[in-house]
Amino acid sequence: MNAAQSGAPALEHYWMPFTDNRRFKRAPKMIASAKDMYYTTEDGKQVLDGLATLWCVNAGHCRPRIVEAIRKQAGELDYASSFSLGHRLPFQVAARVAELTPPRLDHVFFTNSGSEAADTALKIALAYHRLKGEPTRTRFIGREKGYHGVNLAGISVGGVPLNRKAYAGMLLPGVDHLRHTQDLKTRAFVRGCAESGAELADELEERIIPLHGAENIAAVIVEPVSGAGGVLVPPQGYLKRLREITRRHGILLILDEVITGFGRLGTPFAAQYFEVEPDLMMFAKAITSGTVPLGGVIASDAIYETFMNTQSAGVEFFHGYTYSGHPLACAAAMGALDTYAEEKLLTRANGALAQAFEDGIHAFQGAPHVVDCRNLGLIGAIELEPRPGAPGARGFEVFEKCWEKGVYVRPIGDNIGFCPPLIVEPKHFDQMFGAVAEVLKTVG
Ligand SMILES: Cc1ncc(COP(=O)(O)O)c(C=O)c1O
Which of 110, 285, 289, 415 to mutate to test the pocket of ligand 1 (most atoms within 8 A of CB)? Predict the structure, then answer.
């Protein structure tokens, strides 16, 4: 029987993202359905979702309120544009998001993804300075190992070498990068935020500002906890120090909260966890608990009012996506926000649960190949020593063997990332960390 007769699709037509397509298509891992903490594969195996799939399914899978909201909306208003037309949902979602943000961050611009949120935030920063009469502020400062999606602007300020390599010379000009905050020699196996390292933020004032001139810098963009760079937790006081320096020099601070937004650290956003008020915040992923693509940028009152009040009339910002504020995505967001509120999920990554997660991760200290363990709230990673000459191979082997054991954890090079849905229970930690521990004994 060929593939078409068995009902299985041909595999060659779908060019899969961030995937070794040839390897996958030789041995596909096909998921058929999902519920709460688990996937069911096509061959009927239950797999624990240890990464909220891609750091996004914070409410767990196929949650009734979200499913119902999407179903209902699809039959009522399938699509409406937000270009000079309106429908209630994006206004409602924006108001709900603004309730969850620090006080002066009140205005939401919708995108469909985190990558688009990065482009949008950077464009808002450029246009804002121009409106304020500071058009020379065009440079951006990102950080090594930073991940801000895959569009050209995002990879320009991002710092994941493999994502940038093929586009060298074609990235945004005028970008510099802060050093990342990881140091395996002095800060390995730290629980939560390290006590030392805040001074890494001083590089902005000591090297970057003198080099480029503050009057030429539009914004600094960082993830509060960097995710796709390997789950790097900032040292205590580091983000506050970045905030102080940027404010002193009139530079905007953009926090990319695409992973940390919606409860990952036990507060609605990381901005509250670290007590830092940025000028722009990006979100995506968990706003709909991953169900329908939706992202956005939250702008401070000062930025929004500059756009609204310094131009006499007409379109204030020449930017937007066909699907900005899409009804299905906004309905899903309402369902997700209701679920988060009813189940108090945005403050769940705290207390005894976060402690059990931390203990589970740090129990890997001394396990074969493990050179670091990191955690904050309900996000963490263990880092493995790379196999000589084959970086990432050991991490990928752990991922594949864990999948065989019914646990999905994500390899980020030789880091193994953990970021479970916020409905997780301690028994799931036992299953997840137990599988990884067994697998580590078997990888070469
Ligand atoms: C911090 C951060 N920013 C941006 C993005 C890009 O989001 P998307 O894949 O929705 O474009 C991601 C995705 O993982 C992310 O982790």
Answer: 285
pLDDT in tens, 347-380: 999 999 999 999 999 999 999 999 999 999 999 9
The pLDDT value given to residue 312: 86
Has residue 6 got a pLDDT over 80? no
> 231, 62 in Cβ contact below 8 A?
no
Structural domain of 376: 3-59+346-442
**Which pairing describes strands 139-143 and 175-178: parallel, antiparallel, or unpaired?**
parallel
Contact 138, 174 (CB under 8 A): yes
Q: What CATH number did the domain enclosing 278 receive?
A: 3.40.640.10
- With beta carbons less than 8 A apart as the criterion, state whether 284 and 113 touch: yes
User: Within this chain, do residues 131 and 271 fall inside the same structural domain, yes or no?
Assistant: yes
Residues 324, 300, single domain; the answer is yes
The answer on 88 and 234 residing in a single domain is: yes
Residue 3's pLDDT is 52
Measured between alpha carbons, how far is 241 from 238 in angstroms, rounded to an integer?
5
* Distance between Cα 2 and ligand 1 center (Å): 38
Instruction: Determine contact, residues 92/334, Cβ cutoff 8 Å.
Output: yes
- H or E element: which one contains 95? helix 88-100
Whether pLDDT at 332 is above 80: yes
Domain-terminating residue out of 315, 342, 369: 342
Residue whose CB lies within 8 A of the most ligand 1 atoms, among 18, 56, 120, 147, for a mutation test: 147
- For residues 220 and 251, the answer to whether their CB atoms sit within 8 Å is yes
- Tell me, rounded to whole angstroms, the distance of Cα 12 from its chain centroid: 29
Beta bridge mates, 46: 40
Tell me which residues have their CB closer than 6 angstroms to ligand 1: 113-115, 118, 147-149, 223, 227-228, 256, 258-259, 284, 295
Residues 250 and 365 in one domain: no
Mean pLDDT of the region 139-167 = 97
pTM, two decimals, is: 0.97
Instruction: Please say which residue of 289, 319, 342 terminates a domain.
Output: 342
Are 148 and 37 part of one and the same domain? no
CB 221 within 8 A of CB 142: yes
Torsion sign across C-alpha atoms 221, 223, 228, 233: positive
In the block, residue with structure tokens 């409860």 = 263
